[in-house]
Amino acid sequence: MNRHRWWRDAVIYQVYVRSFLDSTGDGVGDLAGVRAGLPYLRKLGVDGVWLSPFYRSPQHDHGYDVADYCDVDPVFGDLDEFDRLMTAARQLGVKVLLDIVPNHCSSEHPWFREALASAPGSPARARFHFADGRGPDGAEPPNNWHAMFGGPAWTRITEPDGRPGQWYLHMFTPEQPDWNWRTPEVAAEFDRVLRFWLDRGVDGFRIDVAAGLFKHPDLPDSPDPEADARTRDSVNPLAWNQPEVHDVWRRWRALCEEYTAEDGEERLLVGEVSVPTAREHARYVRPDELHQAFFFDLLSAPWDPDAFRKVVSEAMEDIAGTGSTVTWVLNNHDQVRTVTRYGEPTPEGSGLGTARARAAALLMLALPGAAYIYQGEELGLPEVVDLPDDVLTDPIFHRTGSRARIRDGCRVPLPWSGQASPFGFTSGAESARPWLPQPEYFAEYATDRALADTRSFWHLYREGLQLRSALPQLGEGTLRWLDTPPGVLAFARGDGLVCAVNFGTAPTPAPVPGTPLLASGQCPPGVLAGSTAAWWITDPAGL
Predict the structure, then answer these.
(1) Which residues of 455-466 are buried (b: 16+ CB within 10 A; e: fewer)?
(2) What pTM value is reported for the model?
(3) Which residue of 43, 270, 356, 484 has the fewest C-beta atoms within 10 A of its own C-beta?
């Protein structure tokens, strides 16, 4: 990995802090728990960690409603603990990325409280999207937009004099008012926030809702007002992907390069960019904007070799063509875990979903560019699909009354050891209760068991990461597709390395040790016809 441009082929581990490791016994993970887990992540072989928001927050959306961007919420620790975490990460050679939330804040942020106490048209309200309502007495929202988490995207306030007043915009929940980036003061404030954390030594930022920030200046009605809520994606063209957002990323890139100039090591900006095509995605990673942006098309692709090949080819053509590298991802804190998404597993971890998830992992790690692993992915954790209603915390559930697309199931605290909850997650008594209940079958996925079993997901990931570091063909670069029989996908990387993925369902003959499995650009049907599996194959003679 190039020290200066380390991000181009890095493998980053996403830590959902409240579910990683609890050091205090209160049932919620914290920064001290992350610090204690760093040697485990170094042993796994990742290059860095991305930490979910740990800033001061009322936790209506588990930290994505930020009340103070420059402090640590007491539930996670304090700034001194953050500094200790940074010191430990430096000693282990682990990069640290923070999750920054520039599209919206908390309704308890001091600036929003000031806006509520100020008059219509005041500078304090200009930091947000306040507007008069429509209809008699302004009783209807200013437009017909719906929030991504359900319900209208507008909430009416009571003015300081007690009368019904203006409405404010929130594209997620009422507790998360959207910033108005057309007000210069907002941009200046986020410059301050970035510098605060860069001065504390962070290596970069994952940017939440990076295609957001700017809304159409006239706030007109949408032709499909329920699109965002229906898809739970940023598809309203009036609320997302406005052209002015690219000026923000140019500004942030220039700011990060000030720090790069001091020591030659680049500070990374990686965006959560949800746009319809790879070509639009590529606009965010032009040389003077974000370094990288998550490419979600692989995550959302159906289990089909033609679909996977199309997704990879478009990314390589449009995104890598900008000079950036593609940022691949199969799991994150907002998505159903691959083991479940690809096919329901048995509690013991066998089954179609498990086989497909293992194959997909090897494919992802063999692709050119960077990769992000979500905590528990390396254990083969399935989605917890049977959490009772009374423990669900996702605001999507509470705003819609529906369990469809809720996110608690992939956020259940990790199992570390033992046969019963809390499975070593909390340092408290065995009766300590994690913030979300862990199912009994998590014992089969505990980290101590995974490390002891050389056939486990953990060893698959570790060996893949070790090879990725050792083999010069992997990381950055290009790929070359190989001709394959139906149901098989194979590509070559550099000289003498092939990733071959079988999407079929019949038994698979085992590769013969010492026998070249690929030659002349062909993938032999006799080797790859069969059940879902993947291989990395090296042929010393080259291809």
Answers:
(1) ebbbbbbbebbe
(2) 0.92
(3) 43
